[in-house]
Design brief:
three-stranded antiparallel sheet; alpha+beta; four-stranded mixed sheet
Length: 159
């Protein structure tokens, strides 16, 4: 079966292991400079919170409906998923064959399917459960979407 890339020339999906192992990743096919918009988010569909959805507000989630669903989590990510402006932005210079990743708690307040992080970064949070479960001092080290910042402020005001 021939699969087609949703964004040819920008990035591609690399499948590793069996289909149940969740070891696929998104790899850059070209160079991106820090701050560059990699792609605009299009064809999003609103739906329930799921392991494949992305949170775009305090209450709403969308499906990406593209190869972007293969963006893996990293505590030291190469990209920022800007859900307000609907774009994926390079956080650092990215070379062809570099993995594209983002910090899941930058969009997710409470993960539908928490998991252990394998990123190996010195900033690793260990278990990825959503921003709700992470200390503010840790979250402040990352770029966060506005709805996550608002939810943090509400949480911290209740303490």
């Amino acid at each position: 079966m021939l699969s087609t890339s949703s964004h040819p020339g920008l990035f591609k999906v690399v499948h590793q292991g069996d289909s149940e192992s969740f070891t696929s990743k998104l790899i850059a096919e070209r160079e991106f400079k820090q701050g560059q918009v990699i792609v605009e988010l299009q064809n999003l569909t609103v739906g329930p919170k799921r392991y494949s959805s992305v949170q775009i507000s305090a209450d709403d989630h969308v499906e990406l409906n593209s190869d972007l669903v293969y963006l893996n989590h990293s505590c030291n990510p190469s990209t920022y998923l800007d859900v307000q402006r609907r774009r994926l932005i390079a956080l650092k210079d990215i070379c062809p064959s570099d993995e594209l990743s983002f910090f899941y708690p930058s969009t997710e307040w409470d993960m539908a399917q928490p998991f252990d992080c394998w990123c190996g970064s010195f900033k690793c949070i260990g278990k990825v459960t959503g921003a709700r479960h992470i200390p503010t001092s840790t979250l402040e080290q990352s770029m966060l979407n506005d709805h996550i910042i608002q939810l943090i402020q509400e949480r911290d005001a209740q303490k």
